[in-house]
Amino acid sequence: MPKTKPKLERPKLYKVMLVNDDYTPREFVVMVLKAVFRMSEEAASRVMLTAHRMGVAVVLVCARDIAETKSKEAIDLAKEAGFPLMFTTEPEE
Ligand code: TYC
């Protein structure tokens, strides 16, 4: 009898996306990326500029719970400071 290997589904990965807006200062976006996503100044500036120019940028690809927790943390920081900065999460194809 052929051995049936139990298929272990790999958990789906999620993307955290940074969304551009017209009001949040660039420096604030960079600060949030560094504080919440532990990015270097250079990486944070690059991602911020990509979102600024293209409308959105991928910040992180990770497990769903981490993606959701981190994007909420980042949105909350912006809310406290009175900025409309937005992060979204979506499953990777
Ligand atoms: N567009 C903003 C500005 O010109 C800066 C910004 C960049 C805001 C990226 C959000 O995801 C963002 N002040």
Automatic annotation (TrEMBL):
<dbReference type="GO" id="GO:0006508">
    <property type="term" value="P:proteolysis"/>
</dbReference>
<dbReference type="InterPro" id="IPR003769">
    <property type="entry name" value="ClpS_core"/>
</dbReference>
<dbReference type="InterPro" id="IPR014719">
    <property type="entry name" value="Ribosomal_bL12_C/ClpS-like"/>
</dbReference>
<dbReference type="InterPro" id="IPR022935">
    <property type="entry name" value="ClpS"/>
</dbReference>
<dbReference type="GO" id="GO:0030163">
    <property type="term" value="P:protein catabolic process"/>
</dbReference>
<comment type="subunit">
    <text>Binds to the N-terminal domain of the chaperone ClpA.</text>
</comment>
<keyword id="KW-0378">Hydrolase</keyword>
<feature type="domain" description="Adaptor protein ClpS core">
    <location>
        <begin position="10"/>
        <end position="88"/>
    </location>
</feature>
<dbReference type="Pfam" id="PF02617">
    <property type="entry name" value="ClpS"/>
</dbReference>
<dbReference type="GO" id="GO:0008233">
    <property type="term" value="F:peptidase activity"/>
</dbReference>
<keyword id="KW-0645">Protease</keyword>
<protein>
    <recommendedName>
        <fullName>ATP-dependent Clp protease adapter protein ClpS</fullName>
    </recommendedName>
</protein>
<comment type="function">
    <text>Involved in the modulation of the specificity of the ClpAP-mediated ATP-dependent protein degradation.</text>
</comment>
<comment type="similarity">
    <text>Belongs to the ClpS family.</text>
</comment>
